[in-house]
Amino acid sequence: MSKFPIYISGTVEHGFKRGGKLLGCPTANLSIKETESIIKQLECGVYYGFCTIDNKNIYKTVTNIGWNPTFGDNEHKITECHLLHQFDEDFYGEKLKLIIVGFIRKEKKFSGFEELKNQIKNDTNYTDQILDDLIYQKYYKDTFFN
Ligand code: ADP
Ligand code: RBF
Ligand code: MG
Questions:
Q1: Is 18 helix (H, G, I), strand (E, B) or coil?
Q2: How does DSSP classify residue 84?
Q3: Over the stretch 37-81, which tens digit does the pLDDT of each residue have?
Q4: DSSP 8-state symbol, 103
Q5: Ligand positioned closest to the Cα atom of 64
Q6: Cβ-count burial of 114 within 10 angstroms (0-12 exposed, 13-18 middle, 19+ buried)?
Q7: Is residue 19 lining ligand 2, measured as CB closer than 6 Å?
Q8: What is the DSSP string of 31-62?
Q9: Which ligand 1 atom sits closest to the C-alpha of 80?
Q10: How far is the CA of 24 from the centre of ligand 3 (A)?
Q11: Which residue out of 51, 64, 85, 91 has the highest number of ligand 1 atoms within 8 Å of its CB and is therefore the one to mutate?
Q12: Which residues, at least 6 apart from 45, have a Cβ–Cβ distance to it below 8 Å?
């Protein structure tokens, strides 16, 4: 039996502010307290799925769950979501509901930021393509989020 879908929800918290600025890829960091019990059982790595912000629109999402070993300064295992959409404003403090439908790869320690940046681009492109597959379309239905 598949372990997907996996549902995770949490309030968007502040992190180290390096996703957008350093890696060109902002990530909505989910509240550590609200998510720790569910993510502690999950393999560290990159996952694809969909999410809502405050129960509104649904976005394709690539999610990293782990410790960011390339940086080595996280004190907690965290859930970070990059939404495949251009936003005009930040959404800190809002509720993000995530449904993970598949796994891409394990989280790893990169020797430099450029390698990590390139890998994140590949993960994002892969997510964009695979989520168009009809088998995932049922997750677009709002009923999954209520
Ligand atoms: P932090 O370390 O505080 O998480 P980031 O540089 O990772 O900082 O930026 C994350 C913030 O950027 C999110 O919390 C959200 O408010 C905003 N944001 C804007 N666009 C996106 C997007 N496409 N995906 C994820 N977050 C986004
Ligand atoms: N950090 C790592 O140290 N190793 C990874 O393999 C890794 N993969 C990621 C894949 C994606 C799609 C995203 C969005 C982030 C990934 N990160 C990874 C996390 C990255 O280090 C983190 O988003 C920034 O440090 C900002 O918190
Ligand atoms: Mg972030």
A1: coil
A2: S
A3: 999 999 999 999 999 999 888 999 999 999 999 999 899 999 999
A4: E
A5: 2
A6: exposed
A7: yes
A8: PHHHHHHHHTTSPSEEEEEEEEETT--EEEEE
A9: 4
A10: 11
A11: 91
A12: 64, 65, 66, 103, 104, 105, 106, 107
**pLDDT tens digits, one per residue of 9-45:** 999 999 999 999 888 999 999 999 999 999 999 999 9
- Is-catalytic flag, 80? yes
Examine residue 69 and say whether the peptide bond preceding it is cis (omega within 30 degrees of 0).
Answer: no
Whole-structure pTM value: 0.96
User: How far apart are alpha carbons 44 and 129 in whole angstroms?
Assistant: 22
Query: Does the Cβ of 15 fall within 6 Å of ligand 2?
Result: yes
Q: Which atom of ligand 1 is closest in space to residue 81's alpha carbon?
A: 25
Nearest to 49 by CA among 135, 121, 143: 135
Closest by alpha carbon to 16, among 80, 65, 64, 98?
A: 80
Chain CA centroid to CA 41, Å: 16
